[in-house]
Amino acid sequence: xxxxxxxxxxxxxxxxxxxxxxxxxxxxxxxxxxxxxxxxxxxxxxxxxxxxxxxxxxxxxxxxxxxxxxxxxxxxxxxxxxxxxxxxxxxxxxxxxxxxxxxxxxxxxxx
Amino acid sequence: xxxxxxxxxxxxxxxxxxxxxxxxxxxxxxxxxxxxxxxxxxxxxxxxxxxxxxxxxxxxxxxxxxxxxxxxxxxxxxxxxxxxxxxxxxxxxxxxxxxxxxxxxxxxxxxxx
Lengths: 111, 113
Fold this sequence. Notes:
The complex is a heterodimer. Chain A is an all-beta fold. Helix content of chain A is 0%, strand content 54%. In chain A, the strands form 2 sheets. In chain A, strands 2, 4, 5, 6, 9, 10 and 11 form a 7-stranded mixed β-sheet that branches. In chain A, strand 9 (87-94) and strand 10 (101-102) form a beta hairpin. Chain A is globular and about 40 Å long. The termini of chain A are far apart. By secondary structure, chain B is mainly beta. Chain B is 0% helix and 55% strand. The model of chain B has no long low-confidence stretch (mean pLDDT 92). The interface between A and B is medium-sized, with 21 and 23 residues.
């Protein structure tokens, strides 16, 4: 079974721009979660989508948004980028009561 | 708000020694996970602990869960250099807090020859 894939792997943007990251879950998984990892704040939950609906949301500003398509692929968007948005963005998918499987991540640098 | 605390945050061990990493969490949950992260890489799933008293072992690592004490441990037996990595515990709040995984700060393990 192919794992979780994320594109792009690396991204450089400037302040004020917006960015869209993509995640394809493991085949058959309907839940996709997004996390942000920074040296200062650690790993933080952004949001989760299940069957095209946002099921849970972390404590992030409205500049962070996401969506899920009918094939379970998910995108997250960050508008009006700030320097502090520089991070590793991880996507994870899961089936039922098993663990969340993480993709390789997208490393975003905001200049 | 669910809080997850790990200790120690940094651990330097000699090869062949044993040690335990502790993970405390603040609210009721029956789903706890352990992950490993190598530098510059993503998270690799190690263990899923789904009930009180659960114990799982893989190679030199053994994880346990005490839901009454809200404590999980990751025990390392006869450490080898290949175990050097950062280890995270995470609690799933799907049934309780409306969040998914809340992670501990991570324990950076270095195994020295």
